[in-house]
Design brief:
Layout lengths: L5 H9 L4 E6 L12 E4 L3 E5 L2 H4 L2 H5 L3 E3 L5 H4 L2 H7 L8 E5 L1 H11 L19 E5 L6 E3 L2 E8 L5 E8 L2 E5 L8 H8 L3 E7 L7 H7 L4 H8 L8 E4 L6 H10 L7 E2 L5 E3 L1
Parallel strand pairs: 3-4, 4-5, 5-6, 10-11, 11-12, 12-13
Antiparallel strand pairs: 1-2, 1-14, 2-3, 7-8, 8-9, 9-10
Amino acid sequence: MTAITCKSLQEWVYNLPMEWRILGSYGGSSPTCRMTSFLINGHLALDAGSITQALTLPEQRQIDRIVVTHSHLDHTASIPFLVENTFGEKHGGLEILVTPQVMQTVKLHLFNNDTWPDFTRIPNDFLPALRLRQIEPRQPVAINGLRLTPIPVRHIVPTHGYVVEDSDGAVIFTSDTGPTEEIWEVANQTPRLKALIVEVSFPSRLQSVADVSLHLTPTTLATELAKLTRRVPIYLYHLKPSCLEELRDELAGTRFPHPVEELRQDDTYRF
């Protein structure tokens, strides 16, 4: 039996594929559709629409940090319940990473002692159950052995997509966005890009709704994908439950510049 040295063990760990568990992949809630939440490598959550609906209590306790792309409920709704479910379980508390604009909204509307207790001060200011950490747009930050870079996108509230990188490659998550530019420029320049997760929310007959709310339809998605010069797998998320089958039919009948497929809730992807 070959001995595993510290160096070889470290290399083996870093060469493991990046694991994305799809806790929720929809832009709304129904008995079969959970809101946007991804669990990366078992310990880091990217958005938190339905963490507590998808994970057992022991699995919830494994989460150290949550990165929040924007303040809308379908990306944040389970945070208060996760904090409550893991209260007292984590030394130093649960850490939420947000950009400056999202920080203000979370403080004002989520943990304000009106909609939910302010766990940033419970049990006390020195050892709170929840810590909010500000990160800056376009500045990479090391989190749980990964490097995450927030990239601004166009939505009706301040929103950032993320480049998520490990030593072997990168995955880009656009978060919610209407037609935008910068994240496609970043995608075209990112080395070893392995996948893109892109939103599409409404069928094209609701284009006016998508335009006002800064979301994509199959029509505008096709235009956005034409900005991508790379050949990488493209996964779609944020389909609205109220028009799910109609949207799936339209997606199947639309010619896109790149092949696309719907992100499958409850599946685990390894990149």
